[in-house]
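Subject: Sanity check before I submit

Could someone independently write out the structure tokens for this chain? I want to compare against mine line by line before I put it in a report. The sequence has 80 residues.
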Amino acid sequence: HLERAIDLKPEDPTINDHLGDAYWRVGRTLEAKFQWAHARDLKPEPDELPKIEAKLRDGLPEDTSNAAAAEKKKEDGKGG
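---
Independent answer below. Compare away.
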């Protein structure tokens, strides 16, 4: 859906930023960095610019929320 949104509003820095996030999460890091660079160049809101620059520099932190939730569910099922 984000790729379709880009087709409709290619000049929107927020959509480009979120598409970069989605690409990163599925391992498409080169495409993620391209989208983040494009978002940066499209003049995002001033408070968003440092976040985008940090993603370009460091990528996204590993999302452990799903892994932690799965581990807790697994532990809760033990010893019942």
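---
OP: Matches mine. For the report I'm noting this point. The CA atoms of residues 2 and 19 lie 6 Å apart.
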